Amino acid sequence: MRLRHLFAVNIFFALFFGLSCTLLPRSVFWLYGVQPQEPALWATKLLGGSILGFATLMWFGFNAASIDSRRAIASALIVQDLIGCIASLQFQLTYEVNIVGWFSLTLYGVLALWYASFLFLRPDAC
User: Fold this and answer.
1) Res 107: pLDDT
2) Apex 74 CA angle, 103 and 18, nearest 5
3) How far out from the chain centre does Cα 88 lie?
């Protein structure tokens, strides 16, 4: 597998979560079994926009001819996924969140490790 393939997989998840957070923030909270307040809905819409921005980066990374560009995009995604993993863990352990919270935590963690493997263990596959 090459880094471009990981970008393609990640684009799928980013579009799903980005559009869901932007267009259906109440449904996202319902999915996690959490009751939102209005400021949380606003922040969720902003998060959705950021996730869609990352999806755009992944799209450009998928099509980039430059290995340096793909590595730079993967580096940004590691930061995003590590923060997402830590925040998801904190959220899962602090609040009464259902099993879907563990899915988010796992997804962020797996993506961070996968990007790290390309950058640090298999740089020739970038």
Assistant:
1) 96
2) 45
3) 11
Distance CA 121, CA 61 (A): 19
Q: What is the pLDDT of residues 70-92, one digit of tens each?
A: 999 999 999 999 999 999 999 89
All residues at 6 or more sequence positions from 47 whose CB lies less than 8 Å from its CB, including other chains: 21
Radius of gyration of the chain (CA): 15
Cβ 22 vs Cβ 49: under 8 Å: yes
Q: Please state, for a pLDDT cut of 90, what percent of the chain lies above it.
A: 83
Q: Which residues contact 28 (CB under 8 A, 6 or more apart)?
A: 20, 21, 44
The two three-digit tokens of residue 12, written as one number: 């799928």
Range of the domain at 81: 3-125
**Token duo for residue 80:** 């995003």
CB atoms within 10 A of CB 28: 22
Distance between CA 2 and CA 104 in Å, rounded? Answer: 24
- For residue range 8-38, what is the model confidence (pLDDT) as tens digits? 999 999 999 999 999 999 999 999 999 999 9
